[in-house]
Design a protein that fits this description.
The chain has 56 residues and is mostly helical. The protein contains 2 helices and no strands. The protein has one domain. The chain is elongated and about 45 Å long.
């Protein structure tokens, strides 16, 4: 795994936690921010996957 894959996965986890906290606290803003962070993490992970594939 490269650093983009690791950081992307961490952002996905952080986003999911924020999203669930927003649902529990009935805070739509936090929920949306969590969803966005999750998507950001998925994109960064995909970028890391592409970098890894190019090195092969």
């Amino acid at each position: 795994m490269n650093k983009d894959q690791i950081k992307g996965t961490a952002k996905q986890v952080e986003g999911k936690v924020k999203e669930q906290a927003g649902k529990v606290l009935d805070d739509k803003t936090m929920e949306v921010k969590g969803k966005l962070k999750n998507q950001e993490g998925k994109i960064q992970s995909a970028y890391g996957d592409a970098k890894k594939d190019l090195k092969k």
